[in-house]
Amino acid sequence: MRIAISTGGGDAPGLNAVIRAATLSALSRGWSVLGIKRGYAGLLGDDEIVPLTVESVRNIGHLGGTILRTTNRGNPFDFPRLQPDGSYVSVDRSDELIENARNLGIEAMISIGGDGSLAIAQKLVDKGMRIVGVPKTIDNDVSCTVTTFGFDTAVQTAIEAIDKLQTTAESHDRVMVLEVMGRDAGFIALHSGVAGSADVVLLPEIPWRLDAVCETIMERDRTGRKFAIVVVAEGAMDEHGETSLIGESMPGQAPRIGGIAHRLAKSIQQRTGKECRALVLGHLQRGGMPTGYDRFLATRFGAAATQAVADGKWGQMVALQTPNIVTVPIVDVLKESKRVDPHHDVVRTARACGISFGD
Ligand code: F6P
Fold this sequence. Notes:
Blueprint: E1 2-7, H1 15-27, E2 32-36, E3 49-52, E4 79-82, E5 88-91, H2 94-103, E6 108-113, H3 115-126, E7 131-135, H4 151-172, E8 175-180, H5 187-195, E9 200-202, H6 210-222, E10 228-233, H7 260-272, E11 276-280, H8 292-310, E12 316-321, E13 324-329, H9 330-333, H10 345-352
Parallel strand pairs: 1-2, 1-6, 6-7, 7-12, 8-10, 8-11, 9-10
Antiparallel strand pairs: 2-3, 4-5, 12-13
């Protein structure tokens, strides 16, 4: 049996632990393993294909990033092709990809990615490829799994930022606005805000008003707490119901979300007269060593993916349904993205502890 492994979309801490576990568990069955570099691009001649051996996955489980590289611009069904005049057109290169995989003797693939990569995997499965998915994203927005690896590490990074902002905010009587990632899901903001004892947490899932945010800050001020920490999810809509976008994205790439923290800090300062500063935590949340939890989950996912290949579970994704790792059809996963439930106990816990959602 010859299998291939690819990592697609934005990287997430724990990818290398999945690659390691999937490779080792495949090799121990006597299979051979190929690593496709840069998502599916390696299968389209745009990057390398490398053998994965015991040596190549040695000592990588604790490393951030992915030894296989990744891209969020490699959709083979919507591949950006540069034209002589500098513009791009979208081309469907899926048949070419399937043909290349066949010529390499690849009998099955483990595709590690978020909802975008899983959607591509499903379309390839529909065209006859034998693929098993592994959910990956710091955003934790993939359905049918309790969590994705990478999320815990991102939350940890955000908590450390909040802890550090607390001391400087208190020293200066300032309002600190911290913007965290998550695209359209508020899990990183919610979990880090609760664990880091933020004062205000703003999420895409809970509409908020500037008046309510400022009232929370001024109420603290009146009781002698002259500083405040506001955690805002990058995808939280502003007061006009709009998501903040930064600049141009590259061809084939989703619009880039971000920048709300600066606008919010300006509005709070104007409204309250309090000095405000903004910090966009950005890609720090994606970098560095995975937490023990993420490494552990990623290792379980990797071995489970190889097992799913052995069982012929094409079009299935491994998932955590505590306490077990199970497989679920990717089509079910794609039905809807996971979002924060405004009535979830974490939201209720936050409110009970005095956190405002600006609603
Ligand atoms: O989906 C993961 C994520 O980190 C989002 O939280 C964020 O909006 C996006 O990727 C950033 O993508 P890029 O790496 O293209 O800037």
